[in-house]
């Protein structure tokens, strides 16, 4: 796999929760951190995503906001 995004977080799928059209995929990226992605159910099926498999959370964002009280 080649991709231009530099924010690739390798981990293990720990949970897949399918809804009516969208699934939430939780990936353990180590160090006690997890990332949750919302993707289509179709994508889950096409990529054969399931608990225990290795996956990458690929983060591509144009803005990062910071807020304080």
Automatic annotation (TrEMBL):
SUPFAM superfamilies referenced in this protein's UniProt entry, alphabetically: MOP-like
InterPro entries, per the entry: Mo/tungstate-bd_C_term_dom, Mop_domain, Transp-assoc_OB_typ1
Keyword Hydrolase attached: no
Chain ranges of the Mop domain: 2-68
A UniProt-annotated Pfam family: TOBE
Lineage, top ranks: Bacteria, Pseudomonadati, Pseudomonadota, Alphaproteobacteria, Hyphomicrobiales
Taxonomy, superkingdom: Bacteria
NCBIfam families the record matches: Mop
Entry protein name: Transporter
One BP term from GO: molybdate ion transport
Annotated source species: Pelagibacterium lacus
Keywords: Molybdenum
